[in-house]
Design goal:
homotetramer, alpha/beta, TIM Barrel, 8-stranded parallel sheet, 12 helices, 8 strands
């Protein structure tokens, strides 16, 4: 089972559960994996930025990959392998694929500037991990500072057949989805899967623009799955009603640095993990902030019962 | 009438109306000023970043200041005077104050890095514009890349009495408001006005954390005024209900680069300006994007009649 | 007299002399202009970054342009018109050309990232200043963070005939000069003038790679003129001997932020300006640093008598 | 043998030799280690940025540490352990110390902005590697974008006793050395070792300002050792004569990105490594650039016979 250009649905960016003392909480890894699968996830993405991947060492990373893969079985798993250098990227990518992963995700390093540098980076990355490994291109300028035009993405996808998916989290980014789908229609770019990140903040319209689904870690992956399903079914009003109900909380979770604390706090409340701890350096919620999240959940529960559970 | 540390309410970041050929649309300047005043604005902020200030030359900037001031009378007007150098800043600040402005707003240049550089910059800026001119400190790391800790802001406010207001648009930023208000309570910082920007994306909680109101350009300043009023009155549920109704549109407007096109499009629809044109280089809405905004307005109108007008 | 693609020699980046209290020192403006002309300059560049241009307001900038032009007569003068917006850029450019300038220099704003953004920026800038105004494209990634590949520069020069010169200060940058000259030889790019900045730190080899000369503010423009002349005459050893003699001082002057203080200190010692003052915010030399410059001048004087004058 | 605050002399930033196909060239690792030791190095620094550390995976990094340590015996070795996260940093640091390293070097991640963030980062780093491990603080704003004031460095050194050395490569940076030494004299900061990087471009004056030596990778570490010795002996003229003779080449090597290709080319010519290859992504010298280096070596050989060998 490998990742292909027709992937769709929801691939949650999995949180990585820790004990309060910083050790990986393996029981919660299992529980959280089950939670994602039960939420209607069509795939899973582990070792992403919001999975605190850079805080794990090489051994821990591979152990996490194996632990999750032991549980997901038929569900495809994408492993984030972004690294400062290609040797480390290759090692984790090859080991992950051998362990049963379906593909890898690669973000560009912040130092890239020119169009040619970006394309060359992905060419080198594909050479490093091997062109038999399906690659997700992560396009996240807000955090990484690397700006990829639609034309640059087209060059990457045309030059590198193993790049099969775009993790789209440009902001603003709706026109980029339209531009890429227009390339496909006019025959200048082959079909790729587009899953959207950025906390889901524009997922209501991203699906309408042609995105295939979501790849983000919002603490209600079940809502994301419902939304993608409704959008595909053409139930526009129902999709927006559901999205709008969640937007106040979703927006609150979409805070750089702090957002992961919100997410883990809600995941913990939902019973998906035992602790909301982050490994150092992490952010923490003040009592006031926890109260705000509780209040948002309470308000949400009036429109979506899952928030009250 | 000068700006003081007790300023509160809504100071809209005024858009600058242009004709489609790029000339300033003076009639719309008047109409838009009237619109803001009628919306319940307690003040006005002109020549902000979202007012396309950097696109005006020195003569146009001063002409705009005078035009608006001729109309606002009792309502205080803050003029953005951020500039690459202090001489241009001083010239615009002195001329604006002479014309009747109530204060000036100053953003730090993106090159600043260390705490001391930031404090020194505001010291130099105050010296440049004159310490008799009330200053609004603009704290906008997302766009400017300059990160001011609460302690640095305290140093600025303690060292420079003419700095009377914080335009707060850090993100995440709720804890910063709490930290500054705690400084005041513990007596280590004098009282300053805190008005919030960032498109209002967290205004529901910012008011609860101690902000005095909003300084942002969302195309429904009347909603912002209502929200601040409800929050001050302690009507929490009503405040959140109103905010949540607007959040889908407000969020759509909060798109870097594209947001101003959304804002001007809605302002035009509301009759506040004649054209939604931006001076070059500007962003433009695709037909699809305009349709999305229309759809959001339609949905909003079900809960706030002003969106259907 | 307008700037053309065959310009060569040395166009010093003129310092702007100030009184210790921050006023422009007009007498020294005249004296310094005479000094540059007497040093063998084939042109002059005013209002560059190292000319403290951002510290002048609009009125002062134009006054400086007129003052210098009143004195230079047959020598072409390039005016830096970089600005946060096109209206201010246009105003200064048109006024300068009317006053007798030969061309303008435009640096890209630090926010530009993609190839297309850079090309579009210069297209808009040329439209703003008018396509009858010769333009110098400033390529200075170290300071501005904007990286222009040779292919992007070619697009600019091919699309925009009024762009006639490159102020080359990429670092490393030797291969870029070779690449552009190769484009010319293979017929894919028309001829442009290439003058080198970056303090002259690689001018010994830049001239060998095909640069037409220097556009930098090193306090010995007479040395730069000699070097360019020797290089053109094919006197390689003599050129390098002269360059190497100056390199310790030239390198000392090439310190971001501090370099201008060194430059003005030496210009003052050479009698070209009355004060080494910078307008705020400026850097200043410590007593130790002045002693180091004195020592470098003393050592240099053994090989170039001009340093002992 | 551990690193202490009295370390001095030259700790070359060791290049990492590769075969043309990208494998580590272990024979050259040995040969290069011997070369550094024979050059008068008082210590060695491996896995620095210019040692292509980010291109090695975890296993290779540790293997390199062990290989070098097997050869250096009495000479202290500093290991660069900078990493995106603390777990990887800790693993490499502990394993290296166990293998016999004398200390570790840690550079701040480019995302740090405020003074407090920088101090907190080093506090967390020291906690991660263990406070029994001597730490070199790398201060390299040109590349990393993190600006540490003298006061911030003082906070780090006062708060964290295991931080015993500053790798100083701020630019301009002479005043920073003076400021830190003044802190020591006035008793507000304990003594730390200061070794200078930045290619050695200001080493002539850095030693005079109070630096203890060099930690940089210039291909003539023997010259660096002589220079530091002459400076300590107070032979100012001889030190500058030697430095100035090397400056044209040293400056040529100090080109971001390209410099390592120059360095490895010269090291290869000097017989210290078998190939000048870099692991991908690497820079390469054009034939013209190689000719320029040859020419510089030829000119240098007239004043320093080692360049002609």
């Amino acid at each position: 089972m490998t990742l292909g250009p027709d992937a769709s649905g929801v691939y949650p960016i999995a949180a990585t559960p820790f004990h309060p003392d910083g050790r990986i909480d393996w029981d919660s890894v299992d529980r959280l994996t089950d939670f994602y699968l039960a939420s209607g996830a069509t795939g899973l993405t582990i070792l992403g930025i919001m999975g605190e991947a850079p805080k794990l060492d090489a051994g821990e990373s591979l152990a996490l990959v194996r632990r999750v893969l032991a549980r997901t079985r038929a569900t495809p798993v994408v492993v984030g392998v972004s690294a400062p250098g290609f040797a480390a990227m290759r090692t984790l990518a090859r080991d992950s694929m051998e362990a049963g992963a379906s593909g890898v995700m690669i973000a560009p390093p912040p130092s890239l500037r020119t169009d040619d540098q970006i394309v060359a980076y992905y060419r080198n990355a594909v050479e490093a991990v091997g062109d038999d490994v399906p690659v997700v291109v992560q396009d996240y300028p807000l955090l990484l500072g690397v700006v990829m035009t639609p034309a640059v993405l087209r060059r990457i996808f045309q030059d590198l057949p193993s790049c099969v998916m775009l993790k789209h989290e440009d902001w603003p980014g709706l026109e980029k989805i339209s531009a890429l789908r227009a390339f496909e229609r006019e025959g200048t770019m082959r079909r790729v899967s587009i899953l959207c990140g950025n906390g889901g903040l524009f997922l209501d319209f991203e699906t309408e623009r042609g995105a295939d689904g979501a790849m983000t870690g919002y603490a209600f992956p079940d809502m994301l799955a419902d939304l993608v399903r409704l959008a595909k079914a053409g139930e526009r009003e129902a999709a927006h009603d559901l999205f709008d109900a969640h937007l106040p909380l979703l927006r609150y979770e979409q805070q750089q640095g702090l957002g992961l604390a919100v997410r883990k706090y809600v995941l913990q409340k939902r019973g998906a993990i035992a602790f909301d701890a982050q490994r150092k350096p992490g952010s923490a919620l003040s009592a006031t902030a926890r109260g705000e999240v509780d209040y948002l959940l309470e308000r949400l529960a009036r429109r979506d019962a899952r928030a009250g559970a």
